Structure formats: C-alpha cells, structure tokens
Amino acid sequence: MRKNVLEELIILKKFYLKIHQKAF
Fold first, then answer.
1. Which helix (H) or strand (E) holds 22?
2. CA distance 19 to 21
3. Residue 1 pLDDT > 90, yes or no?
C-alpha cells in the first residue's frame, strides 16, 4: 500500500476538475 494516498487523491481531484472545466 502507498503512504501518499491523500496526495494522489488531490492530484486525481485536480485532474477531474480540469476535465470538468473543459466540459462546461
């Protein structure tokens, strides 16, 4: 298991928001 789960979640969140901004 990884210790930087929170960091990865933050990165995924940023990526998700980036795609969502393009969608709208």
1. helix 5-23
2. 5
3. no
Q: What is the CA radius of gyration of the chain?
A: 11
pLDDT recorded at residue 21? 83
Residue with tokens 């990526």: 15
Is the Cα dihedral 7, 11, 12, 14 positive or negative? positive
Which token pair is 16? 């998700």
How far is residue 18 CA from its own chain's centroid?
A: 9
CA distance 9 to 11: 5
Is pTM beyond 0.90 here? Answer: no
Looking at every residue in the chain, the average pLDDT score rounds to 86
